Amino acid sequence: MSETVTIAAIATAPGRGGVGVIRLSGQNLMPLAQKITGGKTPKPRMALYSDFLSEDGQALDNGLLLYFAAPASFTGEDVIELQGHGGPVVMQMLLARCLELGARLAEPGEFTKRAFLNNKLDLAQAESVADLIDASSQSAARMALRSLKGAFSNHIHALVDDVITLRMLVEATLDFPEEDIDFLEAADAKGKLRKIREQLDGVLAQAQQGAILREGMQVVLVGAPNVGKSSLLNALAGDDVAIVTDIAGTTRDTVREMITVDGVPMHIIDTAGLRDTDDVVEKIGIERSHKAVQEADVALILIDPREGVNARTQEIVASLPENLPCLEIHNKSDLMGSEVLQTQQYIARANDVMTISAKKGAGLQALKQALLQQVGWQGEAEGLFLARSRHLHALEQAKQELAFAADCGEMIDLFAEHLRLAQISLNDITGEFTADDLLGVIFSRFCIGK
Ligand code: GDP
Ligand code: ZN
Hints:
Blueprint: E1 7-10, E2 17-26, H1 30-37, E3 48-53, E4 59-68, E5 78-86, H2 88-100, E6 104-105, H3 110-117, H4 123-134, H5 138-148, H6 151-173, H7 180-186, H8 189-215, E7 217-222, H9 229-237, E8 255-261, E9 264-270, H10 280-295, E10 298-303, H11 311-319, E11 326-330, E12 352-355, H12 364-374, H13 389-406, H14 412-430, H15 436-444
Parallel strand pairs: 1-6, 7-9, 7-10, 10-11, 11-12
Antiparallel strand pairs: 1-2, 2-5, 3-4, 4-5, 8-9
């Protein structure tokens, strides 16, 4: 453990609350504990009820002091928690007192970063601390907690162990070029590689599910003016956010709402019609819409089936990214006679056709389920864990390297090299050899006090 300064932060959310917590981490916090309590000596892991004193011995607050002695603490250093009264003024006074006693303000995620640097958590676990705090649904929170407890990391460690074992086998033969092929065949190197690849495919599939839950999905509503995009957005969100009018082109901005379906966060984005215009305000909206469409996971193409698909709609459909999954949505079912309800498919690239009424709320449940299906969500299953797109990229990279390794035939040094690269990608997930700048990016997105 390297020399570090003491850090302090208000760990509870801003505002008023029954209790507020100041958290400190550093190398030797007993003197600080004694100064702030007027000479008391806290026992590790025992609550100490005390006044918290200013420099000249005045009580700033009273409450509980918790002391965790290194290394048995969250960060692996000495940790102190001051549980005082949860008002902003009290918290600020206590924090200022800690700074006076030599601490400096913690950066976002700095406590967790220290936990990582002191091997209390690996990187995937550290990330899941932030994911748990940021979880937008109960499922996401449950899965983040599983990651925090090591569900994901354990899979990765098992894979890395197997890759290392195989590497040792392969590299051992590099010194004996005469016998290497026979040796590897006898040791069933290819069979071992196949097993690793199967395992990795399993972990990747689980991680993809976990990433859907963490990142949520982006759904864009596209279609000609007046087909009911804003109305559908409102119906899905359950209250009015966009301005609904009868005048074509009145949705001037991208309007978004987040809803949760089966625990999966869905960002629903109403587009500004995606058409060429000279109106400056409208132009900004349209640019944002194009960006939203580029980043979308699914597009809902709304049409009014009484009008079918007009040139506007065709133009919009043509502008959608080629591999963006689309659903064809026939809106305003309440206005249609039974003959029109026989859903004819107008748009060839659509994966499905559905009939809804945004106004009456008809067909929305089926629509939500269809959206989950489009991203391959299989429902929360036992053993799932939360994952980030960073993890998916690393797994995909490792998968690629292992595929290269399988194709190396008798070129054993190449085989060994691809195994090495696969291991590096896997190690990136748990952060074994991760560069400092990546760590900076990851931890800076935490909240302060974590
Ligand atoms: P947008 O331009 O695509 O955003 O369309 P809007 O949501 O602004 O809707 C245009 C008009 O169609 C409004 O008058 C809505 O009330 C109406 N509308 C939207 N959905 C339905 C529906 O399901 N049934 C009926 N009867 N009217 C609808
Ligand atoms: Zn609109």
